[in-house]
Amino acid sequence: MSEPTPSVPVVEAFEVTKRFGSTAALKDVSIRVMPGESHALVGRNGAGKSTLVSILTGLRKPDTGEVRFGGAAAPSIADRDAWRERVACVYQHSTIIRDLSVAENLFINRQPSRGGVIDWRAMRRDARELLDHWKIDVREDARAGDLSVEARQLVEIARALSYGARFIILDEPTAQLDGDEIKRLFRRISELQREGVTFLFISHHLQEVYEICQAVTVLRDARHIVSAPVSALPREQLIEAMTGERGGLAVADAAARAALPADTAIALEVKDLVGPDYEGVSFTVKRGEVVGLTGATSSGRTSVAEAIAGLRAAKSGAISVDGVKLPPGDVPAALAHGIGCVPKDRHHEGLVLTQSVAENASMTITRLLGKFGIAPPAKKNAFGQKMIDALGIVAQGPEHVVSGLSGGNQQKVVMARALATDPNVLVLIDPTAGVDVKSKEALLSVVDRVREEGKAVLVVSGELDDLRTCDRVLVMFRGRVAAEFPAGWQDHDLIASVEGVSLHEE
């Protein structure tokens, strides 16, 4: 495929429309991505981003409209090799096969052969040359499952480039990376741009759009709202374009909140907790208090939260709720003693995607809805409808299968399940990861509502907006609680602490 001249877009979609039954997933959407740029595609969950990506990668054909690459019409849907030469998508959930080596992943289904047998030496040599050419520091014989998330993403990019594609779509590439990994990824993206690679960058982290992208396209309600240089679209205008409402993210800032009485009872106590990637962790959360626990991905914050929820056992130490010590690694005991949890991975730990909103939301309380743990469908659906109304879940009804919901609405169903037992302690692990601005507002408003009911909330997150709802924030660094910030902290101070840097050393 010939390289497009600088004035010709790498990819262009003209007035693309796509319907699924009576639902319009895209309505006359257009986008133009120029060579060598990093172009952001943003919008709320359900705005049409995934459908547009499926059309730009040849997985779906538009009902009307046209896609062009380098000024020429897109290949037919059936010609997969031609699509691979033009575009590739590195998805949030990796398509790397973990049990194969890096070399096998790079050349899967196109391994070099000699006499009808795979030429393993040639494949490893070709893999090494490919990795070296794109400056990707990974061993070609390493098992892919042993690589970091960051390294697996780079291997996927190298695989795409090896087909000849110079247009790469990155779908939430930083969702599972910590601060240093994100910086390294952004450096590689910038280097690849200088070498003629073009990116479409999809992210809910708007700050990243300003850090790495030169242009941005906003979709809302399946329509194209605006395309502009990033420098010409300030953050508030970008959020307004995404939501259709003026102003930024509306979340309750704990800095304006009255302090709790000194004699407020302690709901959760963590004492000298030791686990695989943390040690000596101690803190308390009072009734009506929201405490944040943050740190880099490798700080141990998630493991501590999962130990509190009973999802994994600590090696030693104690976790107590209302003065009662919990057995380690026991989810039913945690539930019985009043802990509700929104886990980190909604797809694998939070939801049964093939079941309905009602079935997912009522999963922890079926014994309360019917005899012998069997709940009548009418009772399940009534509870599901109650949660749809309470959390603003956009669904056709309680029997709507959750796999058909947007990411933000799926996360609200996970929140519904956590709240179903009316817990005294709510543990939220990355509660707004991968959701849009309005869903984020809705989920964080639940935190404020639960706090007002006198419940304790532990918000475990690396998102600054999540942490603004907290009365105080504990920062973990290399497995220990390293600092505590009262409400009203400054972004740069908290970020510096997360990265192990003090801005105020004498």
How is this structure best summarized?
The protein contains 18 helices and 22 strands. It is α/β, with parallel strands linked by helices and 506 residues long.
Overview features:
single chain, 506 residues, alpha/beta, Rossmann fold, 3 domains, six-stranded mixed β-sheet, globular
Describe the overall structure:
With 506 residues, this protein is an alpha/beta fold. The chain folds into three domains: 11-243, 3-Layer(aba) Sandwich (Rossmann fold); 250-338 and 424-432 and 449-506, 3-Layer(aba) Sandwich (Rossmann fold); 344-420, no CATH class. The protein is built from 18 helices and 22 strands. It has a six-stranded mixed β-sheet with strand order 6-9-10-3-11-12. Strands 18-19-20-15-21-22 form a six-stranded mixed β-sheet, with helices on both faces. Residues 11-246, 260-503 form the ABC transporter domain.
Query: Within the CATH hierarchy, at the fold level, what is the topology of the largest domain?
Result: Rossmann fold
Number of domains as seen in the coordinates? 3
Tell me the β content. Answer: 15-25%
Shape: globular
Taking strands numbered 1, 2, ... along the chain, how are they ordered across the largest sheet? 6-9-10-3-11-12
Number of helices: 18
Mean pLDDT: 85
Terminal CA distance reads 59 Å
The low-confidence parts are: none
Question: From the coordinates shown, what is the CATH architecture of the largest domain?
Answer: 3-Layer(aba) Sandwich
How many β-strands, per DSSP? Answer: 22
How would you characterize the largest beta sheet?
Answer: 6 strands, mixed
